[in-house]
């Protein structure tokens, strides 16, 4: 799956979940809780797109490049997410619970999407009957 297609799918999922969540919640969420949920979902979406970018960049390269980009990128992405959440709570005064619940929920959905995307990028071994 190309990066552009992956980003479009992530964006579509983000839009559907946020609009659906807004419709389901109605007016029961405070403005700050809604902002926190949108912030968390957006951070999860950016994380998912960045993760896919790093995987796409390793295609056809040696395993050492894969380890540097994907594993090193994972550490960098964790730091960015932690920094984003810290800034959102400490500086922007967003409530932590809706932010973290939205972030984790969207992260799980985007992780499932990434697994499907990775599975489609790799070819299954062909069984030809020979040993």
What does this structure look like?
This protein has 131 residues and is mostly helical. It has one domain. Helices cover 79% and strands 0% of the residues. The chain is built from 4 helices and no strands. Helix 2 (31-57) runs antiparallel to helix 3. The radius of gyration is 18 Å and the shape is flat. The two termini are 32 Å apart. The mean pLDDT is 89.
Keywords:
mainly alpha
Question: Quick recap of the structure?
Answer:
The protein has 131 residues and is an all-alpha fold.
Number of helical stretches of at least 4 residues: 4
| Shape summary | flat
Largest beta-sheet details: none
The poorly predicted ranges are none
* Estimated structural class: mainly alpha
Give the rounded overall mean pLDDT. Answer: 89
Order of helices and strands: HHHH
The tally of structural domains comes to 1
User: In what range is the share of β-strand residues?
Assistant: under 5%
| Rg value | 18 Å
How many β-strands, per DSSP?
0
Proportion of helical residues: over 70%
Distance between the termini: 32 Å
């Amino acid at each position: 799956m190309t990066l552009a297609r992956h980003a479009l799918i992530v964006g579509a999922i983000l839009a559907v979940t946020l609009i659906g969540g807004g419709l389901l919640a109605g007016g029961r969420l405070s403005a700050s809780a809604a902002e926190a949920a949108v912030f968390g979902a957006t951070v999860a979406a950016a994380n998912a797109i960045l993760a896919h970018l790093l995987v796409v960049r390793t295609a056809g390269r040696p395993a050492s490049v894969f380890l540097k980009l994907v594993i090193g990128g994972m550490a960098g992405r964790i730091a960015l997410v932690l920094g984003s959440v810290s800034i959102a709570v400490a500086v922007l005064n967003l409530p932590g619970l809706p932010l973290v619940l939205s972030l984790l929920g969207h992260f799980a959905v985007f992780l499932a999407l990434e697994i499907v995307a990775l599975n489609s990028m790799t070819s299954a071994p062909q069984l030809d009957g020979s040993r």
